[in-house]
Amino acid sequence: DGCDNFCSFCITRIARGKSRSISKGVIFRDIEAALAGGVNEIVLTGVNLGSWGKEGDGQGSLGTLIQEVIRQFNPPRLRLSSLEPWDVNEDILHALELSGFCQHLHLPLQSGSDMILEKMARRTDRKEYENTIRKIRSISPEIALTTDIMVGFPGETDDLFEESIDFVRRMNFAGGHVFSYSLRPGTPAERFLDRVNSAQIKIRSQRMRDEIKHSALKFKENFLGREVEVLWERSAKVGDNWELSGLSDSNLPVKSTVGEDLYNCISRVSVEQIVNDSLLGKILPEKIDRIKISGKS
């Protein structure tokens, strides 16, 4: 909980205070209980996830925690929620090669303009962010990298917005969230006077969303005609069949239809097409993992 960063648009540090780490013992007990209940994907999450263990109490870092979880529990899947780009260190890079670690990282960028990043008090710039992306892809070329982008931050001129959208285009993200800046009382940005009008923010938001959507589609197209591993998170009986939806290892939405309920199973799926932003394909039955959550109706 809490955060040690000072992003000028964010109220989190003021509202939640400094970063505080849950102990490794509590984390391990939660994981053990989840796996005993049939959970097939463990997600490590937090307000500022990358700061875990930085209090210096000997618990280690997030990267070493990931390695210990995989070594001790060997979960079918381990995923991270969101990670600031400056927290991607050698331990995190090593985790990318571990069995069960999902090939997806969400790395908030916020802006593709160095001038705006500086005003936001982000602890990175375009060059450092791009270098981080390059390191990650050198280890895992097909990893899904998603991000957060903010438009309309005070001082964002038309030219600076074009810088941002051009940088986003070059990063080839697998997806992302686009946010329109909104003032948070008590934050440093509250004092910034060079604000962008709401009509312009709306236009920029749509353009950025279109760019992210196009980039996401290109990423999905890479999987056409290939096999992906899917954890089925929803199932519905339709006639004699079950319609399934879930996420691939790389966080892509996948759908399929089969003659039995495979909720909470992990399957191999041959991807055939993309419909409404989801991959559609056929399940390869000989590779179905039959693990299910007990007690599911």
Concise structural overview:
The chain has 297 residues and is α/β, with parallel strands linked by helices.
Indicate the topology.
Layout: H1 12-16, H2 24-36, E1 41-44, H3 62-73, E2 77-80, H4 90-95, E3 104-106, H5 114-119, H6 126-139, E4 144-151, H7 158-171, E5 175-180, H8 198-221, E6 227-238, E7 241-248, E8 253-258, E9 266-275, E10 278-283
Parallel strand pairs: 1-2, 3-4, 4-5, 8-10
Antiparallel strand pairs: 6-7, 6-9, 7-8, 9-10
Q: How would you name the oligomeric state of the polypeptide chains in this document?
A: single chain
Number of helices: 8
Main beta sheet strand tally, sense and closure:
5 strands, mixed, barrel
Indicate the overall shape.
Answer: globular
Beta-strand proportion: 15-25%
Q: Unreliable segments (pLDDT under 50, ≥5 consecutive)?
A: 290-297
